[in-house]
Design goal:
Layout lengths: L1 H24 L13 H8 L3 H9 L2 H10 L7 E6 L1 H5 L11 H9 L2 E2 L5 H4 L20 E4 L6 E4 L4 E4 L2 E5 L2 E6 L6 H4 L12 H12 L10 H24 L1
Parallel strand pairs: 1-7
Antiparallel strand pairs: 1-2, 3-4, 4-5, 6-7
């Protein structure tokens, strides 16, 4: 009887060991999503993007981006360059108010890339990089260069250049990077090309020639014919005087 109880105990111990090993080898359950992506919530958590959040809302780009992230995400993801409040404070007074509603939309979209980029993946990106304002092959592009260590990159619009080394959030499908300058696009804030100087007409050239020669009626315009006329008058006076002397 004791031997039987010992055998049963051994068999039970073996089954328990097998069950423990099987449980340990079972894959851990995947983490449940924390909820839908919300770009505004990410920026609010950062604590220094009040102006950019307001601009996102007034242009309705927060709603559009959140919808694209959560409803029509196609695998490419998105990257957002978020200017701080100090970046907007450093703009010339009235810069935003001088823009039309559509221009403000383009300004915001110029901070959004229709592609998820990590610092490392920017190193292999081809310039110029399209933004949401670019459409398929339009303007409002950016040029990005990275350092060899991949811990910093420079972003250029053609008007401003800003160094980026701080990621606020990098979790696919959205990467958010802090920038301390507003990415003013060349298409809205580029220097106006100087107007070409008007071409002088032939008439203008003739007038310039006349002016260079001196104004009409000046002493410089006296000709030899005028001098001859003066001499003729002198001779006439002398002849009359001689005739009067003869008659007397």
């Amino acid at each position: 009887m004791a031997a039987m109880r010992t055998g049963i105990a051994v068999v039970a111990a073996a089954f328990l060991a097998i069950a423990t090993v099987s449980h340990a080898q079972a894959p851990a359950p995947s983490a449940t999503p924390s909820g839908p992506q919300n770009v505004t919530a990410i920026l609010e958590k950062g604590g220094q993007y009040t102006t950019f959040i307001r601009l996102l809302k007034t242009t309705q780009q927060d709603t559009q981006l959140n919808s694209q992230l959560n409803n029509s995400f196609n695998g490419n993801g998105y990257t957002l360059f978020a200017p701080t409040d100090n970046a907007f404070n450093n703009l010339k007074a009235g810069t935003l108010n001088s823009l039309t509603q559509q221009q403000q939309v383009s300004l915001v979209q110029g901070h959004i890339l229709p592609q998820f980029y990590t610092m490392e993946s920017f190193q292999t990106a081809s310039n110029p990089i399209r933004t949401q304002a670019s459409g398929t092959d339009g303007p409002f592009t950016l040029n990005v260069t990275t350092t060899a260590s991949n811990n910093q990159m420079n972003v250029s619009t053609g008007v401003v250049v800003v160094s980026v080394n701080n990621a606020l959030s990098v979790a696919k499908p959205l990467a958010v990077y802090t920038v301390d300058k507003v990415l003013l696009p060349q298409e809205l804030f580029g220097a106006m090309a100087p107007a070409a100087a008007p071409t002088a007409s032939k008439g203008d050239k003739a007038k310039k020639g006349e002016a260079a020669a001196g104004p009409a009626g000046s002493d410089d315009d006296v000709t030899p014919a005028g001098a001859a006329g003066a001499r003729a008058v002198g001779w006439g006076v002398a002849a009359i005087a001689a005739l009067v002397g003869y008659l007397l």
